[in-house]
């Protein structure tokens, strides 16, 4: 028997419609906090039993920090960054091979800021801004029904269901909500890229004791090599080094479908050292610090989605544009999603009767940009692993330009203009 869940009530709300967010990860909580602050009733449904420490460090680029600032969330995030503050931090590229030649230093503009923070700290900062009664754990979405013009209904594994005026899927790259958009039952719509990532956290004091030539304590670094690269980002106020070690087997590209339960598996130190045995001393010293690590099979949505929205169901974050991590911009795109969704849904002309108009504008404005970053992230990985390559320096010089130099205000203004046109058309239809 299906049990209808009770909607969480929020006092002093300004909107009559109700939003349900499926997925309580970073993107879901950013959406949730911003919607609540915009006066919109909201509930979050998370499949896990509690918020947990999944993953390691994340890196927020200038565009992500500007979007957080626009939403009034930047200070709360920074306050949980263990002493780290947004700073002008160039990204340094060096060869992973013998000699560790400096290849390129990507310089930021004077107004640019970046921030390295542990994923769990970021999640905690956001969760503290929400009423706990609006968060529902152990709620694994199995499918969404959406009959004609009726409200979409989320169905959960435990037999309960929940109806809302709008459903936002932020349930990650394995999204079940995405099936409500694509209509492809039982298919994830993602591809294994042939790349695996070994993730580890090292104490920077231990890194220094290894006598590594490069100073990894201040700025992000990327050691680039043939079919491999390593990203290092200092987090926790420069006390911890977040290390992501990428290795690509091009022969596996498109030929192997990884079962979902094998996307993340334990890996041995010996496996990592063997894959990087042709690298120079700095890389070998760094990898010698590995004690335990997990191996992540990198997947991406491929091909990019034709729609982020269907009816009153919308996708955001990795559910919409799950991408390779090579630009460190996946969460940043989720933040941009949340900002635009919030701005559109809180618009004075939007109500429960025309909320689909706001979602259609979101789809038209966000999808081209997010899919561009998705495609560019895959290209960035190919650039990193193209050593030796004569065009490597010139490619690195423009790596983040379209991502970081994005005009956020123009993006928002375009969406508002579209909404006004749609609203004007609706008013004309009402009186003719």
TrEMBL record:
Residues 18-376 form the FAD-binding domain. InterPro entries: FAD-bd (IPR002938), FAD/NAD-bd_sf (IPR036188), FAD_monoxygenase (IPR051104). GO terms for molecular function: FAD binding; oxidoreductase activity. Pfam families: FAD_binding_3 (PF01494). It comes from the Eukaryota. SUPFAM superfamilies: FAD-linked reductases, C-terminal domain (SSF54373), FAD/NAD(P)-binding domain (SSF51905). GO terms for biological process: secondary metabolite biosynthetic process. Signal peptide: none annotated. The chain crosses the membrane at residues 16-36. Keywords: FAD, Flavoprotein, Membrane, Oxidoreductase, Transmembrane, Transmembrane helix. PANTHER family: FAD-BINDING DOMAIN-CONTAINING PROTEIN-RELATED, HYDROXYLASE, PUTATIVE (AFU_ORTHOLOGUE AFUA_3G01460)-RELATED. This is FAD-binding domain-containing protein. It comes from Pisolithus tinctorius Marx 270.
């Amino acid at each position: 028997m299906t049990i209808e869940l009770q909607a969480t009530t929020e006092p002093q709300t300004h909107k009559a419609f109700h939003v349900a967010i499926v997925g309580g990860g970073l993107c879901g909580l950013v959406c949730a906090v911003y919607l609540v602050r915009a006066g919109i009733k909201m509930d979050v449904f998370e499949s896990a039993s509690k918020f947990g420490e999944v993953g390691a460090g994340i890196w927020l680029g200038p565009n992500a920090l500007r979007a957080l600032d626009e939403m009034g969330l930047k200070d709360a995030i920074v306050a949980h960054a263990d002493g780290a503050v947004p700073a002008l931090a160039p990204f340094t590229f060096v060869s992973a091979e013998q000699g560790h030649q400096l290849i390129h230093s990507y310089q930021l503009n004077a107004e640019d800021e970046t921030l390295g923070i542990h994923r769990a700290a970021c999640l905690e900062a956001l969760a503290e801004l929400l009423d706990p009664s609006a968060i529902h754990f152990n709620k694994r979405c199995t499918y969404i029904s959406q009959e004609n013009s009726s409200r979409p209904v989320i169905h959960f594994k435990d037999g309960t269901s929940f109806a809302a005026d709008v459903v936002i899927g932020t349930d990650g790259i394995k999204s079940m909500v995405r099936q409500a958009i694509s209509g492809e039952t039982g298919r994830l719509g993602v591809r294994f890229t042939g790349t695996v990532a070994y993730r580890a956290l090292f104490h920077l004091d231990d890194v220094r004791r290894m006598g590594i030539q490069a100073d990894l304590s201040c700025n992000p670094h990327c050691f680039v090599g043939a079919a491999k690269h390593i990203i290092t980002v200092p987090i926790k106020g420069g006390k911890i080094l977040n290390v992501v070690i990428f290795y690509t087997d091009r022969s596996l590209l498109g030929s192997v479908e990884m079962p979902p339960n094998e996307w993340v598996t334990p890996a041995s130190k010996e496996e990592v050292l063997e894959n990087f045995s042709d690298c120079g001393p700095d890389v070998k010293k760094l990898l010698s610090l590995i004690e335990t690590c997990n191996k992540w099979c990198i997947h991406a949505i491929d091909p990019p989605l034709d729609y982020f929205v269907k009816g009153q169901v919308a996708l955001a974050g990795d559910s919409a544009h799950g991408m390779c991590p090579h630009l460190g911009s996946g969460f940043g795109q989720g933040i941009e999603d949340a900002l635009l969704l919030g701005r559109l849904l809180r618009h004075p002309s939007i109500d429960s009767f025309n909320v689909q108009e706001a979602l259609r504008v979101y789809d038209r404005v966000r999808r081209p940009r997010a899919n561009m970053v998705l495609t560019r992230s895959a290209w960035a990985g190919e650039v990193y692993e193209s050593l030796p390559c004569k065009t490597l320096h010139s490619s690195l010089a423009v790596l983040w330009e379209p991502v970081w130099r994005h005009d956020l205000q123009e993006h928002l203004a375009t969406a508002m203009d579209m909404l006004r046109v749609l609203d004007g058309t609706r008013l004309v239809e009402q009186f003719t």
